[in-house]
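Exam prep: given the inputs below (a chain plus DLL), describe the expected output before reading on.
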Amino acid sequence: MGLVSKGPKETECTEEQWLKSLRKTVERVLPIPHYQESYGAIGITQAEDIKSLKDFERLPLTTKEDLRKNYPFGLFAEPMENIVRLHASSGTTGKPTVVGYTRQDITLWAKIVANGLKRAGVTKKDVVQIAYGYGLFTGGMGLHYGCEEMGAIVVPISGGNTARQLMLMRDFGTTVLACTPSYALFLAESLEESGISREELKLKIGIFGAEPWTEGMREEIEMRLGIKAFDIYGLSEIMGPGVAMECSAHQGLHIDEHFYPEILDEEGNPLPVGERGELVITSIEKEGFPVLRYRTKDLTTLEYGTCSCGQVGWTMGRVSARVDDMLIIRGVNVFPSQVEEAILLEGFEPHYLLVVYRVGNLDQLEVQVEVNETSFFDEVRELEGRQDRLQKRIEDVLGISVRIRLVEPKSIPRSEGKAIRVIDKRNKEG
Ligand code: DLL
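Solution:
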């Protein structure tokens, strides 16, 4: 069943409700100099100036750059004495983006995550092993508070230490695993070598997110761990994990009602329901760090309707990529997820690396793909055949020539958090 594509823009009553909530967020941010200045420039000086969703959609977008310019606390809407927690983005260069939560924000976040987990079938009887990193990254703490809110048993193990993860998974009777999909795959691989059998585990649900992953990757993880895998989406600037999450119908990720989503094209114009573009989010009811029309840089689609699980509201498609992740190779747009799909379809495991480099003035793409232990000992001719088929498939999808390099089992570094899929050597080579 697909969702009924009918936006709240068509139903006056829902538009009124959204407007009321959005005006509250506008009211909350207007005392902040950044918003005062940028909204003032288009004649918005009070929340009542926003008379319709159309007016709202004229408000300037907020970018990561705006957050950086106001580093660290310039966009907080509450005095510091009311802030009880800080998190920060995992950016590798420059200043991180910092977000602050009031006590009520933390309570709200926990409720939002708990609701998402319930939709995936998690109950208070579950033992949830949280292998997302704890710390400034929102993954660990976000899931932690959500699980506690619903009364589940939390195992706050954080990321890494894989042998210990598996031992405790068995000894504590873990039923739910929460981590990045790439780490879940690494855990599956390590389990097969650990001497612990799958039958000794009670695992049944996986809560995976924080990085793009494909349907093929889901199938691979579900098969190897014997679980049902659910996609969880979020970003620190908006709140952290839980902004959207899949239910057992797996028909997209339900966006929690505390977030107002839009999809925009590259120029920032609204796209109709169902079209793929950049997700923009406004928070509702957040106190410490409310954010309006935030450009997530995540590419997805939006739909509005009733899911077969009974939930009514916005759903988003799987985030296939970030605008930032798009490689431009010889003028062609390339996303790592396109390569991942092809790799899985040709029966390889999703351990791969895209290496982009330049020979003379020409961009080259090398796709390194691991072979597993079994196929490593296959006839050379058989392996060459698979390599050729993979090359053809990737070239058909991307429309550019690529070089495939099959590499030894376990030679591509495994990730304990967000996987690194691309090495772009072009800039370094000048
Ligand atoms: O990754 C929050 C999170 C933690 C989400 C745990 C889910 C689970 P950041 O470090 O700020 O926050 O990174 C946010 O990660 O803009 C997306 O590009 C990507 N991302 C997050 N969830 C998904 C997902 C956390 N389910 C950035 N699918 C976002 C694809 C995702 N990409």
